[in-house]
Task: structure prediction
Amino acid sequence: MSESLFEFVAEKLLEKTDLENLEARGTIRLALKSSGLTAREVTREQMIVVIKQVMPRELRVRGVEDPDGACEALAQAVKGFEHEGADSDGTSPEDVFRRLSRS
Result:
């Protein structure tokens, strides 16, 4: 894996907001933690839900302009993350069922 999902989202959050690196990473970690998830184990689908449901509130607290727009852009970017081939090794049950559903 060249880049983790967490690193990818942190990079995109930096592009979409005026947050500093540590603040952006901490914001993502707090959003994941409040959802019962960790940066290491979060899946793409879980991250999208966290971005849409939890992150707008976290960004509002930090004074980010247009948190809903930033989160929508983040969610769209995460949807494309799988195509970069860095999300999973393809052996999780979700990956197997996803492939089966495309057949």
